[in-house]
Amino acid sequence: MSSIIRLLEPALINRIAAGEVIERPTSVIKELLENSLDAQASEIHVTVRGGGQSLMRVQDNGHGMNEEDLILSVQRHTTSKLAHSDLWNIHTFGFRGEALASITSISKTTLTSKTKDQPHGWSLHSEGGSLEALKPARCELGTCIEIRDLFFATPARLKFLRSPAQEYRHLNGCLERFLLLNPQVQFFLHLDEKQKVFKATSLEHRIKAVLNVAVLEGFWLEETVHDIHITGWASLPGAHRRQADRIFLYVNQRPVDDRMMIHTIRSAYHDLIPKDRYPWAILFLTIPYVDVDVNVHPAKTQVRFKSPQDIRAALLTTLRKVLFEQGKKSISIYPK
Ligand code: ADP
Ligand code: MG
Question: Does 247 lie in the same domain as 183?
Fold first, then answer.
């Protein structure tokens, strides 16, 4: 009897993977930003039209790719980042080598890139994962990735697209996380008709530019509890919000979504702000790489801690300590 099991076509495998990696247009921008930052860009332009469905473009001045790497970059499981087979020691945003393969399989994508050693750049166009021939391109050092018609190859996902207004809310949340993490990088945002420039600056000035509040009192903190190092900024109890959307968390320089951490931060403020409200906080945790697993989900925003109770204790200790001293130590992020 002949077998009925067969290997799926590569294009189909990529589209299946894209279902997890690219949930919505904002996921594309997140992956492209991570790649630009991994490529050491100091300047990044982000252009989005129609909530991302008609156009998304991320252009950077990072180290770029040569023509061979351009072709490899859109293949599945191809990466320049995971040099050793060590999933416990990942210092880059990317490591799975699947974002570009997924994105190109479900959209019309043009990648243009130039390295410092090349006289000119190269451009590669893909429609639903089928590649056209490489073309020479006139461009500066760096990479530009342009995506049109996202999900055109996956009609089921296309149906779930929300309105552009809703998508821009997600997108802003994503952009804020990267803006706060990388104050040293200059960002140019072009979202439909809205344009905004965030100049390279200090964290303090970037917080001020991103949070966009008149005056918000808070404190800087820095504390090491065992081998967990915590730095950042948090609001004084006077400011609080109904949602946790002003809590930005980073573990080893990676933006993370973590309910346990948000819950812990709120409990540090529990007798100081009304119940069911959240403070503002931007916290950077540095912990030994072996104590955190970043390979939990393809979108890489969730992490698994080896001992969550230590993270919880370190956060509580740090925040409670400063909150108790708030009267003496508090400073504004808008110093005179
Ligand atoms: P990963 O980031 O996990 O390696 P991706 O699919 O996102 O996987 O990217 C594949 C490869 O393409 C990267 O490892 C990198 O070498 C290259 N690449 C992608 N984007 C850029 C960029 N903006 N600048 C330079 N190289 C890039
Ligand atoms: Mg990547």
Answer: no
